[in-house]
Design brief:
The chain is about 35% helix and about 15% strand. The protein is of the alpha+beta class and about 180 residues long. The strands form two sheets. The chain has a three-stranded antiparallel beta sheet. Strands 5-4-6 form a three-stranded mixed beta sheet, with no helix packed on it. The N and C termini lie far apart (about 70 Å).
Length: about 180
């Protein structure tokens, strides 16, 4: 008679809180819940903390790497680019292509905010959600998406942006970001 199959033991399993081997719990800042399949690595936590530090800032992969290094977090460029893409696919970041065709990432807003049009500053790359009068635009976009879905298209992602210089950059003459 064959032996019962046991689930594999993971060497990465942390001791449970009830276990005598568990370290004393220190109060920590609440960590963002990550979607299934996305590990909470040092790089993941560092990138999310960076993006949360200035939610309106739209950063390129190069800018994220430089900002992490300024914070004392060693960052491999390829790892950061892959992580940014995974975070965007998971819905934690939003990916946009700016007027210079540079891919930029921002912290994802609520589902209602994701549908909102936004203003992008071409100098400092800040993104400002446009809330006033957005309801008719969302209704029109919903009709467009329904028509595209009816035609068989899938995984539709609306992205409406107005580009220009923000008031701070226009008044100061130099980028504010």
């Amino acid at each position: 008679m064959p032996a019962p199959v046991r689930p594999p033991r993971s060497s990465r399993a942390a001791p449970s809180a009830a276990s005598p081997l568990a370290p004393a719990a220190a109060p920590a800042a609440p960590e963002r819940a990550l979607p299934q399949g996305l590990r909470s690595t040092r790089a993941t936590r560092a990138v999310l903390a960076l993006m949360e530090s200035d939610p309106s800032s739209a950063r390129s992969g190069t800018e994220v790497v430089a900002a992490l290094e300024r914070r004392g977090v060693p960052a491999n460029r390829v790892t950061v680019y892959r992580l940014l893409d995974r975070l965007a696919v998971a819905g934690l970041l939003e990916r946009h292509v700016d007027g210079q065709r540079i891919t930029r990432y921002t912290l994802a807003g609520t589902p209602a905010e994701r549908w909102a049009p936004r203003f992008e500053c071409t100098d400092c790359h800040r993104q400002i959600r446009i809330g006033d009068g957005a309801a008719p635009l969302r209704a029109a976009m919903r009709r467009v998406l329904q028509a595209l879905a009816a035609a068989g298209h899938e995984q539709l992602a609306p992205d409406i942006a107005v580009q220009g210089r923000c008031a701070d950059c226009a008044q100061g003459g130099a980028p504010c970001g």
